[in-house]
Design goal:
Layout (H helix, E strand, L loop, with lengths): L4 E5 L5 H12 L8 H7 L3 H10 L1 E7 L4 E9 L4 E9 L10 H14 L4 E7 L3 H9 L3 E9 L2 E9 L1
Parallel strand pairs: 4-5
Antiparallel strand pairs: 1-2, 2-3, 3-4, 5-7, 6-7
Length: 159
């Protein structure tokens, strides 16, 4: 199926719309999060702009120039890249979703910077996301943590 979206590097002017994508994608899970956990997941415009200084952010744009998905990553050591803030608006999840393309652009980018491993963390709340990451070749590493009262799992993929 032909893509009806494009992936590009996020710009400062996209920060507000990225916040909207995060809110739209995670709103249905709000009641599972503590207020602090939800606010960390659904960032403020200021937090998105700060993240752009530390990480590379990408967005998926539909034909009407609206952002429908986002992902960020950064190189954390000589071989590892770490993904954060991946989200796709609910009505674009599933078939012909930009989620796979967003992950692919990060994999290519990370590989070009010498990374051989990509990691990400996701909460126990997000079972659908865990299944998606598995389908894309990520595996649980066994590392867990506490994310504002929710269990968080690390996933990794050799690239």
């Amino acid at each position: 199926m032909e893509r009806d979206y494009l992936i590009r590097r996020a710009q400062i002017k996209d920060a507000n719309e990225i916040c909207g994508v995060l809110l739209n994608a995670f709103e249905e899970f709000r009641h599972f999060y503590t207020p602090e956990g939800f606010n960390d997941t659904v960032m403020s415009v200021k937090a998105v702009i700060e993240r752009m200084k530390e990480m590379k952010l990408y967005v998926a744009i539909n034909q009407t120039k609206k952002i429908i998905g986002t992902i960020g990553w950064q190189k954390v050591n000589i071989k590892e890249g770490h993904i954060r803030g991946m989200a796709v608006i609910p009505n674009r999840q599933g078939k012909n979703s930009p989620a796979t393309a967003l992950l692919q652009i990060v994999e290519e980018d990370a590989r070009s910077e010498g990374c051989t491993l990509l990691t990400l963390d996701t909460t126990s709340i997000l079972e659908r996301a865990q299944n998606f990451y598995r389908k894309c070749g990520f595996k649980k590493t066994g590392k867990t943590g506490n994310f504002f009262g929710s269990t968080i799992y690390e996933f990794a993929k050799e690239i």
